[in-house]
Amino acid sequence: MRITRLAAAFGAMTMALAVAACGGDDSGTDSGSGSSGSGIVGKASSDKKLTIGVKADQPGLGLQTGSTYTGFDIEIGKIIAKGLGVDESGITWKTTVSANREPYIQQGQVDIVVATYTINDERKQKVNFGGPYYIAGQDLLVPTASTITGPDQLAGKKVCSVSGSTPAKRIQTDYKDAQLQQFDSYSKCVTALAGGTVDAVTTDDIILAGYASQEQYAGKFKVVGKPFSTEPYGIGVKKEDSAGCNKINDILKAAAADGSYKKAWDDTLGKSGKAAPELDTSKLTNCS
Amino acid sequence: MDVFSDSYNLDVYVTGFLWILKLTASATVCAVVLGVLLAAMRVSPVPVLRGFGTAWVNIFRNTPLTLIIFFCYFGLYSTLGVTLSDDLELNNYWLGVLGLSIYTAAFVCEAIRSGINTVPAGQAEAARAIGMTFRQTLSLIVLPQAGRAVVAPLGSILIALCKNATIVGTIGLMESSNAMKELINSNGNAVFTIFFVFAGTFAVVLIPTGYGFGWLANRLAVKR
Amino acid sequence: MSTDAVLYDHPGPRARIRNRILTVVFGLALVGLLYWIYHRFDEKGQWAGSLWKPFTQSSTWTDYILPGLQGTLQAAAIAMVLSLAFGILFAVGRLSDHWWLRIPAGIVVEFFRAVPLLLMMFFIFFGIPFVTQKPMSPLWAVVFALTLYNGSVLAEAFRAGVHAVPSGQSEAAYAIGMRKGQVMGQILIPQAARAMLPVIVSQLVVLVKDTALGYIISYSELLQLGVNNVAANFGNVIQAAMVAAAIYIAVNATLTAVAGWLSRRTRRSGKAPRAARPATALAATAEP
Asked: Biased-composition ranges for Low complexity (chain C) (predicted)?
C-alpha cells in the first residue's frame, strides 16, 4: 500500500515537472533549469496556487478595499498568474511594505512580488526580477499653488517620503539641502502635505498620481511632471529561479501583444486619463 | 562585526543611540514634573482638577504610544500649528519628547498616587493638626515620603521610557529602531550581528540602570 | 493612606470660595483650550463631513476596522496566555534553589526586559527566518515579541508577589509535608497572582496597546487596516486615527473594569491574601 502511494506521488511529481517543462517549450525559451520544481513555474502547475506580494495602501496601484485588492499592480499579478495557469481563485494576495519585499521573497512568504518594485543592482543581489512592466520616475507632488518646479528647488524645503525607500535615499544623497521627513506610509506624507507641514512629497510619479487623483484631494495637488530618475518596475522572484523569471517575461510579452496589458492599465490608472504606456519588450531583463 | 567597521554604518548606529539618550533625558524631566502635577491634581480637593487628572490617566494610559506620537505630529503640529523648532529634525525630536512625556506622565502619576497610599494616614493627619494647608501637607510631608517608596516603580517606568523612545521613529527621527532597520536592509547577511549589537547596547545600559534603581530604592526605603 | 480626603480638612467657608474660584478658573481654561483645538481643527477643515462620512458606512467597519480589531484582539489574546505562562515559568525559575536554573532564567528575563519591543519584533520577523529557513508569519512575530517582553515583566511581578506572601504561608505548607513544587504551585503562586492582580492587569493593557506596533511588520491589526488602509482609501488619516484611539481606549478600559470587578469579587469571597507588606506591594510595576 505504502509503496503504491509513494509511486503515485512520484508519478504525479514527474508529471508536474513534465508540464512545467512543456510550458517553457511553448513559449520558446530555454527553461531547462525550471525542472528543479522549486521555482514558481513548478509550484504554480503542481498546486495551482500563487501567493503574490502587493502594496495595500497605494491608490491606483495596489489598494486594499476590504478583502479585495485593486490597482495596476494587481492586474499585472493576475496576468502573471493566468500565464502560469493559476485561476484568480488560486491567488493569495499578501500585503507587503517597501522594507520587507526582499525578505518576503527570500523566505518564501510570497512567490512573486508586484509592488511598485524598482529593479536595481542592490536588490538584484538578493532577488531576481522579471519585467520591467512599467518605467516610472521619481517626481514631486506639491500643492497646486506651489512654486516648486523641480528637484533643484528643494533647498531648505521639507520633503516627505517613506523611510528606507529609494526616493528617500536619493533625496538624502543627491539633494542634501532639502530637509527630509520620513513616515511609514505615503498616506501620512500626503496628509502632512495637505496640512502644510511639508512642502513636497516625493516618490515615483504614478504613485503620486494615484494619490493626487483621490477624491479627498481633488484639485489640491499637482504632480510636477519632471521625473528625475528612472524606476523600472519589476516582478520579484527568488534569486535562483531564473526559469520563473523567464516565464514571467514571456507572459509579459504575450500580454503586450494580445492587449491584456493595455486593458490592465485602462481599468486602473488609465481612469485618470493618462494613456496606456507601451510595454517595451526589448528592455525585459535577461533573468541572470 | 564587519558591519560596524564601516564608518557610515557606525555613524548610523551612534546617531541612533544619541537620539534615544536625548529623547530619554528630556522626556524624563518633563514626564516626572507632569506626573507629579497630575498626581497632586488627582488627590486635590477641587473636583475639576481631580476629573482632569483622572481623564488624562485614563485616556493616555490606554492609547498606544504610536498613536499619541502620531497625534503630536498630525494634531499638535500639522493641525494646531504648534511649532517647536524650525529645524525639521529638532521639531520632530521635541514632538517626540512631548508625546513620550504625555504618555509616561500618566504612568508616573499612578505610581506616585500609589506611593502616596503607602504613607500612613497619621502623617497627613498630624500635618493637618498643626495647621498645614493641602499644599504644605502634600509637598512637605506626604510627597517626600511617597517619593522614597516610588523609586523602584519610577525606575521601571523610566527604563520603559527609554525603550519606548524607539517609537518616535514612526515620525521619521533616525533613532535606533530606524537605524537598525536601515542597517538590516543594506546588510541582510548580518541580521544577527546587527540585532545583538543594538539589543546588547540597550541591555548594557538598562540592566545596570535597573539594578541601580533597585539599590537606591532599598537605601531610600522608609523603615517602618 | 486609604482615602485621599485625609490630605485636606473639610473645607471651611474660605476654602470653599477658593476651591470654587479654582474650579471656575481651571474649568474656563480647559474649556478655552478645548474650544481652541476645536476651532483650529475646524479652520483646517478636519471636521468636514466627507472625512468622517466613511465611518458612518457599515462597509468601512466590516472591511477595515472590525477585521483590524479582530487582528489586534487575536494577537493580544494569544500573547496574553503565552506571556502569563512564560511569566510563571520564569518566575519559578528565578526563585529556584538550583543555580543552574536560577541564573539562566535571570539572564533571559533581564535581557528581554531591556530590549525595546520594536527591535525585538524586527528581529523575530526578519532575522529568525534566516535560521529556520521558514517564513515567519507576522502574527507569530508579534505574538512572540509580545510574549518575550511582557512575559519577562510578568515574571518579575510574580516573583515580587511571591516575596510579598507572608513567610508563615510557606512555612506552614512545608510543615504539613508539602513538597517544594506543591508549595510553589498551590500556596505561593496563587496568592502572588492575587496580590499582583493590578500589576498583571496593567501589564496586559500594555500588551494590548503594544500590538499596535505590529503594523510596522505589516501585521493586519487595527492601525494597519483601520488607519493606514482607511486613509489610503478615503484620505482621512487624522480622523481614522481618532476612531482607532477611541477603540483602543474602550477595549483597555473594559479590560481594566473587568479586572477591577474580578478583584472586588475575590476580595469579597475572602480569598485574597491579608495585607501584604506595604513596601513590597510596590516592588513591581507595569512597564509601559
From this structure: 272-288
* Residues 6+ away with beta carbon under 8 Å from A70: A62, A63, A268
Question: Burial level of B62, CB count in 10 A (0-12/13-18/19+)?
Answer: buried
Closest chain C CA to residue A191: C237
ipTM above 0.90, yes or no: no
Asked if residue C28 is part of any domain, the answer here is yes
Beta carbons of B181 and A102 less than 8 Å apart: no
User: Class of A138-223 per CATH?
Assistant: alpha beta
Angle at alpha carbon of residue A125, lines to A58 and B1, rounded to 5°:
105
pTM over 0.80: yes
- The CA-atom distances, in angstroms, between C226 and each of A207, C18, C139, C180, C223 are 21, 46, 17, 49, 5
Pairing of strands A200-204, A138-143: antiparallel
Which residues from chain A sit within 8 angstroms of residue B69, using beta carbons? none
Q: Are strands A200-204 and A158-162 parallel, antiparallel or unpaired?
A: parallel
> Does C220 lie at the interface with A, CB-CB under 8 angstroms?
yes
Both C26 and C137 in one domain: the answer is: no
Residues of B in contact with A163 (CB under 8 A): 169, 172, 178, 181
**Chain-chain contact of C218 with A57 (C-beta, under 8 angstroms):** no
Q: Assess whether C88 and C11 both reside in one domain.
A: no
Residues in contact with B135: Cβ distance below 8 Å, sequence separation at least 6, in sequence order: none
Query: Is the CB of C235 inside 8 Å of chain A's CB atoms?
Result: yes
CB A130 within 8 A of CB A233: no
Please report, in tens digits, the pLDDT of each residue of chain C (288 residues total): 445 567 777 788 888 898 899 899 999 999 999 999 999 888 888 888 888 888 888 888 888 899 899 999 999 999 999 999 999 999 999 998 889 999 999 999 999 999 999 999 988 887 787 777 777 788 999 999 999 999 999 999 999 889 888 888 889 999 998 888 888 888 898 888 888 888 888 899 889 999 999 888 878 889 888 888 888 888 788 899 999 999 999 999 998 888 888 878 776 665 555 544 444 445 567 777
C188: domain range? 51-281
Domain boundary assignment for chain A:
2-135+232-275, 138-223
| Per-residue pLDDT tens over the stretch B111-134 | 999 888 888 888 888 998 898 888
Q: Are residues C272 and C166 in the same domain?
A: yes
Chain A interface includes C237 (CB < 8 A): yes
In the block, cell 532597520 appears at B181
Are residue C55 and residue C33 in the same domain, yes or no? no
Q: Which amino acid is at A213?
A: S
pLDDT digits (tens, 9 = 90+) for A155-200: 888 999 988 778 888 898 888 889 999 998 888 898 899 888 899 9
Residue B172 phi, psi (nearest 5): 100, 0
Residue C287 belongs to a domain: no
Mutate to test the interface with B, among C118, C136, C150, C209 (most CBs of B within 10 A): C118
Q: Are residues C18 and C161 in the same domain?
A: no
Q: Please report residues of B whose CB lies closer than 8 A to that of C209.
A: 62-65
Q: Give the contacts of B152 (CB within 8 A, at least 6 positions apart).
A: B213, B214, B217, C282, C283, C285
* CATH architecture of the domain covering B2-220: Orthogonal Bundle (1.10)
Residue position matching grid coordinates 512573486: A112
Question: What is the fold of A2-135+232-275?
Answer: D-Maltodextrin-Binding Protein; domain 2 (3.40.190)
Statement to judge: residues C126 and C268 lie in one domain: yes
* Single-letter code of the amino acid located at A265: W
Domain-located, residue C26: yes
Give the helix ranges, DSSP H, for chain A.
2-26, 40-47, 72-83, 101-106, 121-124, 166-174, 186-195, 205-212, 242-258, 260-267
Minimal Cα distance from C58: which residue of A? A66
**How many Å separate Cα A263 from the centre of its chain?**
17
Starting at the edge strand found earlier in the chain, the sheet holding A179-183 runs: A179-183, A158-162, A200-204, A138-143, A221-223
